[in-house]
Write a structure and sequence with these properties.
16 strands, single chain, 454 residues, alpha/beta, binds guanosine-5'-diphosphate, 14 helices
Length: 454
């Protein structure tokens, strides 16, 4: 009966749905060819194929959800780094530096068959300075004999080297135990702050004005640098007072570091985007209004939707726009951003401060939508009415009916519809549109899944 369905908290596969949680970030760092990607594959249990490194190509996806012994975390694979030989040391170090900033725990991979190289030692110095917990993986230890090679790596001064064979899977359990043990107890120190503080990620491709906006937002207001007690790590988040309330801007270190001035900017940007999204509830995506909309802008926005976070669009550099550009911009936005017509938009200038005060109401409405729970009764009377007015088209003499709907979770709102037959994609989109018209959801992705009753 419909009442039975109401007890289920499931996604489309029938798995229980958990509310958005903040996961620890584990970065896998090391020289090219030490086996980072195969180790990441191993950690993921090969459930997710990691795209092989292609020189010159920036991978979209660098962070993957994983779990070990019942604990969930994100693995950041830094293997996408370009691999030309020149300036290798500098690049590996730069890569490690960024990954380390983002990570809660670093897995440093060394090729035990080669031993510690000068580059490895340089990275170790950097890891030490960071104060982040590091677990040393001695890779390519395929058999007992390799254990001696692994033991040599004590010399790096990073503590016990964990011998692994990421190709054969040997030793990865012990390594993961060590990684989990190294995850700081209090990831964000949230408990020590006002409980209601919302977490915001400031995102956008390089040069759209993220650091300018951050400066403007923090400049006149009080900034509390949030050093996590008891660790020596750099503060990664900043608490910013806006509209009389405190907001946690996550991973502002990644914005202030201006890594985009180095080569490989795209890769870093995408790494940062995904790590910041993990920690945020809502993203403000900045777009440079004075320039044509880029594919990378769309990619950042897509990442937000895929991560299920609330979204506010900020069109920046408004001070540079003339009448003609504004006209074209509107057409571009209409054409390229159809998937997020629901996102509130503010036209701002980080330089002059124009309309920055509009961010807070936009954030509020997006987060409110993100948190919304539609009572089951109300949802079903609405569904009944919609279906009566616009029934699913008859296909092959059959007409699938919607039996019942429920919203098992929020952040973002997820709906499960129970139907007597398969619902066409067009009809699902229609339902989502009607749900939005009825209940708002401005600024939040909405997931609608359908379960067909056997
Ligand atoms: P980030 O890479 O996203 O952090 O971008 P930055 O904040 O470093 O900005 C890139 C460049 O754009 C800098 O030269 C800024 O001064 C400039 N910029 C940022 N915001 C604005 C704006 O609203 N108007 C104008 N005219 N320039 C801006």
């Amino acid at each position: 009966s419909p009442e039975d369905y109401a007890l289920l908290d499931v996604d489309e596969t029938g798995a229980p749905v958990e509310p958005a949680e903040v996961l620890p970030v584990v970065a896998v760092v090391g020289r090219p060819n030490v086996g980072k990607s195969s180790l990441v594959n191993r950690i993921l249990g090969r459930r997710e194929a990691v795209v092989q490194d292609v020189p010159g190509i920036t991978r979209d996806r660098v962070a993957y959800p994983a779990d070990w012994a019942g604990r969930r975390f994100m693995v950041v694979d830094t293997g996408g780094w370009e691999k030309d030989a020149a300036g290798l040391d500098a690049r590996v170090a730069a890569q490690a530096e960024v990954a380390v900033q983002l990570a809660d725990v670093v897995v440093f991979v060394v090729d035990a068959t080669v031993g510690a190289t000068g580059t490895d030692e340089a990275v170790v110095r950097l890891l030490r300075r960071s104060g982040k917990p590091v677990v040393l993986a001695a890779n390519k230890v395929d058999d007992q004999r390799g254990e001696a090679d692994a033991a040599m790596l004590w010399s790096l001064g990073l503590g016990e080297p964990y011998p692994v064979s990421s190709v054969h899977g040997r030793g990865s359990g012990d390594l993961l135990d060590a990684v989990m043990a190294a995850v700081p107890e209090k990831l964000l120190g949230d408990e020590e702050h006002a409980p209601g503080m919302r977490r915001v990620a400031l995102l956008g491709r390089p040069n759209v004005g993220k650091s300018s906006m951050l400066n403007k937002l923090t400049g006149s207001d009080r900034v509390v640098v949030d050093a996590t007690a008891g660790t020596t790590r750099d503060p990664v988040d900043e608490v910013v007072e806006l509209g009389g309330r405190e907001w946690r801007f996550v991973d502002t270190a990644g914005i202030r570091r201006r890594v985009h001035q180095t080569s490989g900017a795209d890769f870093y940007a995408s790494l940062r985007t995904q790590a910041a999204l993990e920690k945020a509830e809502v993203a403000v995506v900045l777009v440079d209004g004075s320039e044509p909309l880029a594919e990378q802008d769309v990619r950042v926005i897509t990442s937000v939707v895929e991560a299920g976070r609330a979204l506010v669009l900020a069109i920046n550099k408004w001070d540079l726009l003339d009448e003609e550009r504004r006209h074209y911009l509107e057409r571009e936005l209409e054409k390229e951003l159809v998937q997020v017509t629901w996102a509130p938009r503010v036209n701002v200038s980080a330089l002059t401060g124009r309309h920055l005060e509009r961010l807070v109401p936009a954030l509020d409405v997006a987060l409110e939508s993100w948190d919304t729970r539609v009572p089951t009764g109300r949802l079903n009377s609405f569904l009944g009415q919609v279906v009566a007015e616009h029934p699913h088209p008859v296909r092959g003499g059959k007409q699938p009916r919607i039996l019942f709907g429920t919203q098992p979770s929020t952040q973002p709102p997820r709906f499960v519809l129970f139907a007597s037959g398969f619902l066409e994609a067009g009809y699902r989109r229609f339902l989502e549109r009607r749900l939005r018209e009825e209940f708002g959801f401005t600024g939040s992705p909405v997931e609608v899944s359908v379960r067909v009753r056997e």
